[in-house]
Structures are given as structure tokens and as C-alpha cells.
Amino acid sequence: MKVPQIPSSEITPERLYVARREIIRAGGALAATGLAVALAGCKRRAPEAASVPTGAPLPGVKPGPFGTDEPRTPFGDITTYNNFYEFGTDKTDPAENAHRLKLRPWAVSFEGEIAKPTTMDIDTLLGLYPLEERVYRLRCVEAWSMVIPWVGFPLGPLIDRLAPTSRAKYVAFTTKLAPDEMPGQKTRALEWPYVEGLRIDEARHPLAILAVGLYGRMMPNQDGAPIRLVVPWKYGYKSIKSIVNLRFVENEPPTSWNRQAPGEYGFYSNVNPDVDHPRWSQARERRIGEVSKRKTLAFNGYANEVAGLYAGMDLRKYF
């Protein structure tokens, strides 16, 4: 079923979104310097978030490879400024509504072109591999970014454990479908459930992880609990949240935003400053908590690690 595209007002550049309420409140009378002050001081109005990590600590977490030493985005910002349309389209909606999501029992099924189809309880899955902290950049298509200390484990060893067949060319991911717990699924904002996909070589890359926490503690509901994908060289919507199914398939699987607006959101969705969104530039980004924009890095700064995956590809065509 093809659903209408989301209005532009609901997919807004971060610079406009953050300033929106201040501009309205001031009657549009802010001067350029006043606007800069408003941008610097603007905070999400609801809900009140802890400024320090909360939730159950994850024991035995070791530092992982590939991390950045850039300053980490504060916990309060990571947990109150979210894209998670299952809980609403406003950036504050997930923090307000995600408490409804029931995290236990939770099972993840593995299906398709694999030798060992199985279903695992989330706690069994958590016990398979040592947990690592990886401080990754997160770059969203609306031109805002964060630096997040994820806790998780590489996806590659899990894929190897499942023994994909020679026909497994892609991995398709599916989010939980539970409209009573995820009120956004009662709307037509997207076609539900949310789905995503990677080429199997992308999924096996050591940078790709399944995250179960951040700041050393269990993943907050609004950030994708209890388990989510993190592929840091791609735009944030590729890192699907609250996963319940991985299916290994031969053909490129559908993905939610590409299905919604194929001219705006490609299957690959690699961070590329040279390929603009049709309605705004991707050449620069604003780190949450900062006023000035910075240059967007190719592959979100992970080009040395992942550019080889796309050797010979036209990255304007395969965006």
C-alpha cells in the first residue's frame, strides 16, 4: 500500500525545528544575533530528562574499536531529541510516549537464507558476545548530529553463527509492530512495521553493531530498546530500532523511507556531503548543543574503514 508522503513540515531541517518555538514566541522579531542566542539556549520542552545516565548498568562493558574521541553528546540530549516515528513525529514525542513499550518478553527471530533459523530471547542474545562501548557519530538526514557512546556487539559474528547460504545477499530488519504500545503506528506517518536493510557485506562490516545500551546502561526505550542496529557511516534512519526480526534474502529488501519517498531516501543512505536532500543541503551539519555548523564528513568520517565497500559504484546514483 502506498501511503501519502509526509508533509515537509514534518521532516524539517534541525536548524528550523530547534528555532521554531522561539521564533513563534518572539513574534518573528528576533534579529540575527538574537536568533543565534535562541538556538544556543533552546532546549526540548518535554519531558524533563535526567542529565546523567539512568537505567540498569550493563556489567563487563569493555572499550571497543573504531571509536571517536570527540566530546560525547549529553545523555539528556540523546534521550529527548529523537526520530522514532512509532512514538510520534515530533522530536520530543518518543521521550514522552516510549514508556508504553514493553521490553519483556522480547524475542528476535532469524529467518530466510540461513542454515540455522532460530528465535532467541533478548537475554539469551545478550549473553552471546562480550559487550563493547563504541563512541560513534550519528548523522541524521535533517543535518543534525550527535556523538553517542553506544554499548553493543558486532553484527558480523552473529551472522556467521547463523551460517547464511550462498543466496543470502541482503539482511532485512523489522521493528516490532504493537500499535497499543507504539501509538505512532496508529497513524499513516509511515507504512508499518518499520523495515530496513543492508547488503550482507555491509552488515558484516566490523563497524556495524547491534546496540543494547548507551552510556554504559540499558538502552532507553526512546533510543531503540531493547536492541537496535547502529551503522555509523549511514544516515540515522538506517539504524533501525526495537528489532524483532532479521531475514536473510537474495534480493534488495524494501526499506521504510525509500518506500515512502524514493527520490529523497535511497537504499544505501551513506552520509555523502555531495548528495543533497531535495529540500536541503547535506554539505554541513549542526552538532546538537552547538550553534555553528560544521562540514559534513564523507561516510560520516568513516571513509577509511568503509569506502572500499562501494568501490566502482556511482554514489550519486546509489545514494
Description:
This protein has 319 residues and is α+β, with helices and mostly antiparallel strands. It has one domain: Alpha-Beta Complex (Sulfite Oxidase, Chain A, domain 2). It is 18% helix and 21% strand. The chain is built from nine helices and 13 strands. Strands 1, 4, 5, 8, 9, 10, 12 and 13 form an eight-stranded mixed β-sheet that branches. A hairpin with a 2-residue loop joins strand 8 and strand 9 (217-218). The model is unreliable at 1-47 (pLDDT under 50).
**Low-confidence runs:** 1-47
Mean pLDDT: 88
Q: At the first level of CATH, what is the class?
A: Alpha Beta
Number of strands: 13
- The rounded Rg comes to 19 Å
CATH architecture: Alpha-Beta Complex
> What summary fits the major beta sheet?
8 strands, mixed
Q: Tally the helices: what do you get? A: 9
Shape descriptor reads globular
| Strand content bin | 15-25%
Order of helices and strands: HHEHHEEHEEHEEHEEEEHEEH
Structural class: alpha+beta
Key attributes of the depicted protein:
Sulfite Oxidase, Chain A, domain 2, 18% helix, eight-stranded mixed β-sheet, disordered N terminus, alpha+beta, five-stranded mixed β-sheet, 319 residues
Provide a quick synopsis of the model:
The chain is of the alpha+beta class and 319 residues long. It has nine helices and 13 strands.
Give a topology summary.
Blueprint: H1 14-25, H2 32-41, E1 62-63, H3 75-78, H4 93-97, E2 107-112, E3 118-121, H5 122-126, E4 132-139, E5 144-154, H6 155-162, E6 170-175, E7 195-199, H7 200-204, E8 209-214, E9 217-218, E10 228-230, E11 243-249, H8 256-260, E12 284-287, E13 294-295, H9 303-306
Parallel strand pairs: 1-4, 2-11, 5-12
Antiparallel strand pairs: 2-3, 4-5, 5-8, 6-7, 6-11, 8-9, 8-10, 12-13
